């Protein structure tokens, strides 16, 4: 197949002449024709003049110098015409190629200065036009590649800064408590401190572990070879179990949790990646729990349609600042979104992870403030269902 493509390419290149080559050939043919016409006309005029004027004919035939002059004119005239034609052709070609060549030279200089914000305007229908178009495509690809590389570098710097900032607090807490225990003599006082410090140390270590797990999950989701692993599951029962867990967690914060659905119970199996779906729901629920005040409410609803699942999670918190709404799904974004309540520090990866997971399923996710107050997140997943008796 590859050799056939090469053969076809060579054949087409042989059949296709350069526009400049065609122009040069036709120009040469024109020069030859014009030269012969001028020479022939000159000789015809001289012969006619000699034949018409007997006195001039006598002088011409008996004057060797005059014969040589006429002969030299007949010989040199084609060369003079040829030289003039070549000079004219060079001038014409210079005008034809000066614009694209100048633009290409300027483009090369801009690239040397790392400036890719330019476009070559020449759009001729010849090889130079094709070269300029190819150069524009190359510039566009290079600019896109560099911008992607710059974004990766910026994300790497942001990730390092986030890790450094978010790990500093738990590490400092752990280090301080360890030093406190080390400076306490063995005995009842040390035992009391140990009992008091252990929950703090455990919470700090869990915070570090959550952050590292979030970073690892996002890194794996951003890989091109990452794929979800859908399996047949009884979704109604799985979501009932998850809702029971959410209800208990919300109760510890004096928050009411309600769950509603239109899923079929019994033997209907839904083909999806339940583990990844639970990760999405967990992230959304933790966000809602974090920013919903005591005596508030969190509502989760799931609607099954013939070709998709539709999830809606709403809280009665303070909502999201309008300036932050367009950016909440961005990586590492942490806005001042919830006035009135001190938010726990996060890595800014929760909603970004939800977006990646939903999109890996082929779905979409959106977030907005509810008119009655609070925040509302809606996402849908394409559905493949299999019925079993």
From TrEMBL:
Top-level taxon in the UniProt lineage: Bacteria
Sequence ranges assigned to domain HAMP in this UniProt record: 95-147
Domain Histidine kinase, residue spans: 162-385
Catalysed reactions, semicolon-separated: ATP + protein L-histidine = ADP + protein N-phospho-L-histidine
EC category: transferase
Recorded GO CC terms: membrane
Pfam families per the UniProt record, alphabetical: HAMP, HATPase_c, HisKA
InterPro entries referenced in this protein's UniProt entry, alphabetically: HAMP_dom, HATPase_C_sf, HATPase_dom, His_kinase_dom, HisK_dim/P_dom, HisK_dim/P_sf, Sensor_HK_Regulatory, Sig_transdc_His_kin-like_C
Subcellular location, record wording: Membrane
TM spans (from-to): 24-49, 69-92
PROSITE patterns: HAMP, HIS_KIN
Coiled coil: none
EC identifiers of the protein: 2.7.13.3
Keywords: Kinase, Membrane, Phosphoprotein, Transferase, Transmembrane, Transmembrane helix, Two-component regulatory system
Name this protein carries in UniProt: histidine kinase
Organism: Reticulibacter mediterranei
């Amino acid at each position: 197949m590859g050799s056939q493509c090469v053969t076809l390419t060579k054949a087409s290149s042989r059949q296709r002449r350069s526009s400049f080559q065609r122009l040069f050939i036709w120009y040469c043919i024109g020069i030859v024709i014009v030269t012969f016409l001028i020479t022939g006309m000159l000789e015809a005029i001289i012969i006619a003049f000699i034949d018409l004027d007997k006195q001039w004919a006598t002088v011409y035939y008996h004057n060797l110098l005059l014969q040589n002059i006429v002969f030299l004119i007949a010989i040199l005239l084609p060369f003079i015409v040829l030289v003039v034609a070549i000079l004219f052709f060079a001038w014409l070609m210079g005008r034809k190629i000066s614009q694209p060549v100048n633009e290409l030279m300027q483009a090369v200089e801009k690239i040397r200065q790392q400036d890719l914000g330019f476009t070559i305007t020449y759009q001729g229908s010849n090889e130079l036009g094709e070269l300029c178009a190819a150069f524009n495509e190359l510039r566009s690809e290079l600019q896109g590649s560099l911008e992607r590389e710059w974004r990766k570098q910026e994300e790497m710097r942001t990730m390092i800064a986030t890790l450094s900032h978010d790990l500093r607090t738990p590490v400092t807490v752990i280090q301080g408590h360890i030093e406190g225990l080390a400076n306490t003599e063995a005995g009842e006082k040390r035992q009391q401190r140990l009992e008091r410090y252990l929950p703090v140390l455990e919470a700090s270590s869990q915070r570090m572990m959550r952050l590292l797990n979030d970073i690892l999950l996002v890194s794996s989701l951003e890989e091109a070879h990452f794929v979800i692993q859908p399996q047949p599951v009884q979704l109604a029962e799985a979501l009932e179990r998850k809702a029971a867990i959410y209800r208990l967690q919300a109760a510890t914060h004096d928050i009411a949790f309600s769950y509603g659905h239109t899923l079929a119970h019994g033997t209907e199996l839904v083909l999806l990646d339940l583990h990844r779906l639970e990760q999405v729901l967990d992230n959304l629920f933790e966000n809602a729990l974090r920013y919903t005040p005591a005596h508030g409410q969190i509502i989760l609803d799931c609607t099954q349609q013939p070709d998709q699942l539709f999830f809606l999670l709403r809280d009665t918190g303070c909502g999201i600042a309008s300036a932050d709404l367009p950016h909440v799904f961005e990586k590492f974004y942490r806005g001042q979104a919830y006035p009135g309540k001190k938010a726990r520090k996060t890595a800014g990866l929760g909603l970004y992870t939800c977006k990646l997971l939903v999109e890996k399923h082929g779905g979409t996710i959106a977030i907005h403030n509810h008119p009655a107050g609070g925040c509302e997140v809606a996402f849908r997943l394409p559905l493949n269902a299999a019925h079993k008796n």
